[in-house]
Design goal:
Distance between the termini: 77 Å
Structural class: alpha+beta
Largest sheet: 9 strands, mixed
Organism: Candidatus Methanofastidiosum methylothiophilum
Oligomer: single chain
Bound molecules: 1,3-dihydroxyacetonephosphate, magnesium ion
Shape: globular
Order of helices and strands: EHEEHEEHHEEHEEHEHEEEEEHHH
GO molecular function: fructose 1,6-bisphosphate 1-phosphatase activity; fructose-bisphosphate aldolase activity; magnesium ion binding
Strand content: 25-35%
Protein name: Fructose-1,6-bisphosphate aldolase/phosphatase
Catalytic activity: beta-D-fructose 1,6-bisphosphate + H2O = beta-D-fructose 6-phosphate + phosphate; beta-D-fructose 1,6-bisphosphate = D-glyceraldehyde 3-phosphate + dihydroxyacetone phosphate
Pfam families: FBPase_3
Length: about 375
């Protein structure tokens, strides 16, 4: 083919059913209808789904990342779905559409975006991850393990095309700046940053120079949009998504999935204000119930065929992840017993953009000075 393929995963919460639990099927149908109109035109292929209350649009095309027409299509689709959500009086209809009108790119307007543009290989496995009830930092630990931890990814040790390691692009989302770091050389320093996952988030991963894959083509992309930074107040959690390519010089599909056997603690859950375990589930089980959670992640696998999405395979719909789910529920029990206490509740600096400061402001005038 020669011409590069772009995979765009764009998501938004445009109304929950009920509360923040899941997406009503009419919204999925509306989105499918909208994208279908562009199949064979703007789009090569698409897949519409949901993770919890987030409507997820996976699209393939040849127009590159940050393409205005593709972003406009996503925005208009979310607007159409919002109309349906309003008619059904779903919860928080239009929640993530934070600006009045679309202007060029959905980034900074509320939706989350992960896009990859690349030359499609002879066989091109790609995994779309979607999370609900958490923030972009939730991807730091698994992405680190996939591309930098030899105890997770044996390919880093035994596959000659992977032993050189990978290059990470890390964003400081507080100060809007970025740094590139090479692993394994800078592994310890990189952990110094990405361990602080509410501030430093992995945005992209690249192959290194001199390897099997072109070093300028990212092999993983994670949505890093922070809703509170756009809205200036709490309107829901960011609920990030990620795209990860696999095999032939990259981690194998099983190495990409392996970190999710550990339900690590992430920020989000009830009112976006609590630490809790991220539970890997099948798509049909991506319904956030207990305490509006626990936070969930789904993984849909595809082979690309000239941009056609051959799939999905619902990768966590597998008894091999039962143990992780049981562990997640044990952790959920343990964390819940802390009630309003930290570290179940997020630390004060992370609570700044929730509804808590309003309560604290009320109390301020009651305080007396200590000698
Ligand atoms: P197969 O022998 O099933 O192709 O698997 C090879 C592999 O690399 C598994 O990770
Ligand atoms: P969402 O970010 O998924 O809308 O959840 C918000 C919330 O407050 C859950 O309790
Ligand atoms: Mg919601
Ligand atoms: Mg959500």
């Amino acid at each position: 083919m020669g011409e590069k393929i772009t995979v765009s995963l764009i998501k938004a919460d445009v109304g929950g059913w009920p509360g923040h639990a899941t997406v009503h099927p009419d919204l999925i149908e509306t989105a499918k209808k909208e994208l279908e109109k562009e199949k064979g035109k703007l789009l090569i292929d698409f897949h519409v789904t949901n993770c919890g209350d987030d409507l997820e649009l996976l699209m393939t095309h040849r127009r590159g990342v940050d393409c205005e027409e593709i972003h406009a299509l996503a925005w208009n689709t979310f607007e159409k779905a919002t109309k349906v959500a309003k008619d059904l009086k779903l919860y928080g209809a239009g929640q993530d559409l934070l600006v009045e009108a679309f202007s060029g790119n959905v980034r900074g307007m509320g939706p989350g975006v992960a896009e990859l543009e690349f030359e499609e290989r002879k066989a091109e496995p790609i995994i779309a991850f979607m999370m609900d009830k958490t923030d972009p930092g939730a991807f730091n630990l698994p992405i680190y393990k996939i591309f930098a931890d030899p105890f997770n990814t044996i390919g880093l040790v035994i596959d000659p095309s992977a032993t050189t390691g990978f290059r990470f692009e890390i964003w400081d989302i507080l100060e809007s700046k970025r740094v590139f770091m090479d692993c394994p050389e800078e592994l310890y320093k990189m952990l110094a940053l990405i361990g602080a996952k509410s501030r430093y988030v992995i945005k992209r991963v690249y192959p290194k120079k001199g390897g099997k894959l072109p070093p300028e083509e990212a092999v993983a992309n994670i949505s890093t949009e922070k809703l509170y930074k756009i809205a200036g107040e709490y309107v829901g959690k960011d609920d990030p998504v990620a795209l990860v390519r696999a095999q032939s010089g990259l981690p194998a599909v099983g190495e990409v999935l392996e970190p999710f056997s550990f339900p690590h603690l992430v920020a989000g859950w009830m009112r976006g204000s609590h630490n809790g375990p991220i539970m890997p589930v099948s798509q049909k089980n991506a319904v956030c119930t207990r305490f509006d959670g626990p936070p969930r992640v789904i993984a849909l696998g595809f082979q690309l065929s000239n941009g056609r999405l051959i799939g999905p395979v619902d990768l966590f719909d597998d008894p091999a992840y039962d143990q992780a789910r049981i562990k997640a529920q044990e952790i959920a029990d343990y964390m819940r017993r802390h009630g309003p206490f930290e570290p179940h509740r997020l630390p004060s600096e992370d609570m700044e953009y929730t509804t808590l400061p309003k309560v604290l402001r009320e109390l301020e005038k009651r305080f007396e000075k200590l000698e």
